[in-house]
Structures are given as structure tokens and as C-alpha cells.
Specification:
Layout (H helix, E strand, L loop, with lengths): L5 E8 L3 E4 H4 L7 H8 L3 E4 L6 H15 L9 E5 L10 H8 L6 E5 L5 H14 L5 E9 L9 H4 L4 E9 L11 E9 L7 E3 L12 E3 L1 H21 L10 E4 L4 H11 L10 H4 L6 H11 L8 E8 L3 E8 L1
Bound molecules: acetyl coenzyme *A.
The site of acetyl coenzyme *A has 23 residues, from helix 2, helix 6, helix 7 and strand 12.
Length: 324
Amino acid sequence: MTQKSFIRGVGSYLPARVLTNAQLAETVDTSDEWIRERTGITQRYIAAEGQNTSDLGYKAALKALDTAKMSGDDIDLIIVATSTPDLTFPSTATIIQELLGMEHGAAFDVQAVCSGFIYALSLADAMIKSEKASNVLVIGAETFSRILDWNDRSTCVLFGDGAGAMIVSSTPYEDEKAGDGVLSTFIRSDGRHKDLLYVDGGPSSTRTVGKLRMVGNQVFRHAVKELSDSMVQCAAAVDMAIEDIDWFVPHQANQRILEAVAKRLDLRRGQVVSTVAYHANTSAASIPLALDVAISDGRIKRGHTIMLEAFGGGFTWGAALLAY
Ligand code: ACO
């Protein structure tokens, strides 16, 4: 019998500092009204000076380990999804491995921008199902505030910092209602669209970190189509219909994207978890952050089915269907 990838625990962490739309409007030519109307965002969290992506990811990992009733000793693989690593190398995953006091196992980063968590989860699932790992710590962690052009109102209002984590394990969570874990994953990319969403720097090209650049309205159009299609394909792979799924936890980019996708797939408003108003777009961290909110407030319970979905730079996109 093939090994299963059970969801043992989920956790998240947000830095202390909140930056509201009104505060942003004091430094850049925008308004609370414009940001709310076009994106649904009201505030975002910003990491403190000296607080790195690994620090956020480590704190989210501790919470996920706690809910899974595990420690770093139990983990044999760490996968961190991030586009804002502490350093060009080593990976943020190995930095978190050290913070957790682990001297065993393996750790690496994946880079698929806002789809990073889906890519990382998909890899974790494959590693467990091929019996190459038993307990995988999957983290999405970002400090996007460090790669924003704070003078560009079309991008700086959209993003925030944060981290989320999930423990995926070959051993089920001890709860008779707990589901079978990862049922299906779907990942895709299309490199032809890199000029629509990118960072204009890098070690090999400019030897700088660079700033985020985006053609927002074009990204919007592609995102709605690919997100909808990837969910349908992910569910169809296990003969499930979209209407059989309890919860949808999308990448949190823009409330209007969430609503357009929900309309396209005929989802009920209450089924779609939305945290974009408070977290803004935290890229690879947004899905586990939103998932942790909906589990912690009691909406998502053991036994529920959950569709995760994301779209980001590359373009990359994908979905993962879970029985929690
Ligand atoms: N405040 C005030 N005005 C602004 C701001 C701002 N912060 N930003 C842009 N504008 C102005 C523009 O200058 C433009 O003015 P003009 O008509 O005088 O030229 C006007 O608003 C309209 O600009 P558009 O870019 O056409 O506005 P749009 O309705 O497309 O909304 C937005 C922009 C919010 C970026 C939207 O396109 C979007 O959300 N796209 C998705 C992009 C995204 O979320 N990317 C994240 C990464 S990918 C992902 O996570 C899915």
C-alpha cells in the first residue's frame, strides 16, 4: 500500500508592526479608499529591522510543531518556499534547521514566488509517498517589504511580511475524524510571462537584490483563469467535483481575484477563506497563514476537505487538495 501524507499540524507567525493604508498614504500618493476598493487590503505586517525571513519561518515552524505534538527531532526534511531568502546562500531552510537545533535530516528552499507553498507541499507529498522522508516541515516565509519599491504606488500597497508552516507526515494525526491528508497536487509554470511580474535584480545579472515590478492588470487576468483551471484539474485527478469540497484556501493576492475565481467556479462566499484584508499579499506565506487562521478560529475541522490554490511570478500556479 502506498504511504499517505497526513497533515499533522499547521502554524503561522506575523511580525508585530502593522502598517495601515492610511499610514502608507502619508508617504506615497495613494488612499485607503483606492487600496480597499481595488484590492480589499486594509493593512499589512512589516518585519522589524534585523528580523529575517528565517526568523519568521522559525516561529511559524515552532507553532506547527506544537500543534503536531512534535519537535525538531522528529523532522527529517525541511522545505522552505521563499523568494526573499536571508542570503543568496545558504538556503533559508538550513538556517531554520540550525535554529531548530537539528543536526540531522536535509533542508532546502524552493522558489516559485507566490505558488511556492503549493510547490513545496507537492514535493513533501512526493518525498513521503516515495518513502524518502517521514516527517516534512513545509514552510512559506517572506519579507517582501525588503524587495518593494516604496515609491511605486502600484506595487508597494499590495504586499506584506509573514510566515506559515505545515507538518506533513507518514503517521496520521491521532484523531478519528482526521482525513487522509494530501489527496492530489497540481503544479504548472509558463516562463513566457516573466516580464509581467519579476524582481529587477539578482546575483548573476545585476549583482543587486532588485525591486518588484508588475503589470498588475495582466497578472490579474491570467491569475483568474489559471487558478480556476488548476483547481478543477487537481480535483478531477481524484474524481472529486468542486462542489464536494468543504473549504477553499487561496493565495491571498487581491479580494477581487478571490471573488472572480469564486464566481467562475460557483463557490459559496463562506467557503473561501480570505485574510487578504489583514495580511495583504505575503507571497509563499499566504496560504499557510490563511489556513492557520481558519483552523484556529474553528472553521476548518479535522475531516474537512480543503483546496489550496496559488498563482505567482514566472508565471507559476498550482493547487493541492487535502483531507484534513
Ligand atoms: N493608489 C492610487 N492609484 C493607483 C494606485 C494606488 N496604490 N496604484 C495604481 N493606481 C492608479 C494607476 O496609476 C492608474 O491610474 P491612471 O488610470 O490615471 O493611469 C489607475 O490607478 C488604474 O490602474 P490599474 O493598474 O489599471 O488598476 P487595476 O484596477 O488593475 O488595479 C491592481 C491594480 C490592484 C494591482 C490589480 O491589477 C491587481 O490586483 N492585479 C493582480 C496583481 C497581483 O495581485 N499581483 C500579486 C502577485 S501575483 C499574485 O499573487 C496573484
